[in-house]
Design goal:
6 helices, mainly alpha
Length: 136
């Protein structure tokens, strides 16, 4: 009888350890807060799409091909569609009261750096600054 009780205890212990191991399936990324490869790939593609749109918009703005207002519209739309975190990031770093103004200020900051690298674009930077003054 003693051996049966000890055997039952050992069996219970083994089953208990197995259920604990099954409760933490480390091979399942979702269970430990990790993202699957597919999720990471999807987020990367979305970010890349947003970044391409942002870079193209900045380039066109710097070259005077689009207005600051149009640039803000494009980037806000691209962010909402592909990378909503961008709007969160600029909200954390810019105290402007509206998202549109935060985006416009972000563009102006980048345009000033573009102007340092390409002084010939200074008139376009001044035009964007003038548009900003009228907008806000």
């Amino acid at each position: 009888m003693k051996f049966a009780s000890i055997g039952a205890l050992l069996l219970t212990g083994l089953l208990g350890m197995t259920s604990i191991a099954m409760f933490y399936p480390w091979d399942e990324p979702e269970m430990v807060g990790l993202k699957s490869d597919a999720q990471v790939s999807e987020e990367y593609v979305s970010y890349f799409c947003f970044k391409q749109s942002w870079n193209t918009t900045l380039q066109q703005l710097a070259q005077g091909q689009i207005s600051l207002s149009e640039a803000c519209d494009r980037v806000q739309s691209a962010s909402e569609r592909n990378f909503p975190n961008f709007l969160n990031y600029i909200a954390e770093t810019d105290p402007a009261p509206t998202v549109r103004e935060q985006i416009a200020r972000n563009f102006l900051g980048h345009l000033k750096r573009v102007e340092i690298a390409a002084p010939s674009l200074a008139p376009n930077v001044r035009a964007a600054e003038g548009e900003f003054a009228v907008m806000y």
